[in-house]
Amino acid sequence: MYKRSQYKTLFERVHEERNLIQVIAGPRQVGKSTLVKQLLKECEIPHLLVSADNVPATNTDWISESWETARMRLDMGGGDEFLLVIDEIHKIDNWSEAVKKEWDYDTMHDVNIKAVILGSSRLLLKNGLTESLAGRFEMIHMPHWSFAEMHEAFGFSFKEYVYFGGYPGGAKLIGDESRWRKYIKESIVAPAIERDVVMTKRIFKPVLMKQLFELGCVYSGEELSLNKMVGQLQDAGNVTTLANYLLVLDESCLLCGLHKYANDNARKYNSIPKLLVYNTALLSALSGVDYSRVISDAKVWGRWVESAVGMHLLNQSNECGYEVNYWRERDDEVDFVIVYNRKTIAIEVKSGRRTTNRGLSLFREKFNPARAFVVGSGGVPVEEFVTWDMNKLLNSLA
Q1: Cβ atoms of 83 and 14 closer than 8 Å
Q2: Is the pTM for the entire model greater than 0.70?
Q3: How far apart are alpha carbons 337 and 258 in whole angstroms?
Q4: 79, 161, 277, 365 - which has most CB atoms within 10 Å?
Q5: In sequence order, which residues have a C-beta less than 8 Å from that of residue 244 and are 6 or more positions away?
Q6: What is the rounded CA–CA span in Å between residue 336 and residue 252?
């Protein structure tokens, strides 16, 4: 079974001295539970894997009971350490308080129980961590699958990856587009929106959230003002509501509204957002445009390629610590601007969508970026760029 790069990180950390709770975070269906099962097959530390999947949300005692089981097995097993893994932990109300209580007890009494927690909702997991567990955990980010991973694990070609994206569960279904599209909508989109996102207290109009997500996916790679979104949505709220919902979708690693790059924050945060999916499978499944048309129509293909380059940047941004923006001045634009330690990298994607664009030259004159280059025609091949480790590019700025 294919092992993602995060496996090595998790394996090394659980074999270190007990220090911090390991949290595996990422969007739905990227292999978090599979990663843990792979670890436990090869880990020689005595362990207990439990899941809150079928536990009533109000049963907070379940966490304490699971922890006490781990303590007893540590005592009776005669070893000097034990590993407790709790899956779907966000489904328990006030789970972070319960974890804090048990972890602090073990710390105070020198009980060597190491803990790994994970859940299918990145947003709900993040909320719990910031509320109660500050200073007690470190994150292992699991983003959507990259082209290199989908190629190695499932034999995806570059064109297949651009269209079908990086969901491993749908990889074997791409021969039947109707079946694949149904899987994306019913097994990924519906649970992510209706369960994970809407379960947060900030969502007062779930229908509007769903409409915003669907509209945003279809317009991936395009700039669309919040006022225009209000005009296109049936259950429209105000622009502030839409801006907040777009932020929630971004935190969930589903859909992002990129800000326009500017020297001052006021202009930046008041700019028209450029919508971008974290996984092109979402664009393909919700757009209704089939694979054969996407790869044969240069204009359509250009938008999918731009979204694929964008998702490659977005999915590494958490781990690498950079921000992704775009830039425009009248008809001239730069598709992506990476901001890292006050330095910028300007990236223009050329794949048949635009014939002329002076954006990169103008951006160089105005902002003097550390790096500025083209991805696509006349520059770095797109198929090569989406295999790049962005850390290496950032390290070259030093």
Answers
A1: yes
A2: yes
A3: 10
A4: 277
A5: 202
A6: 21
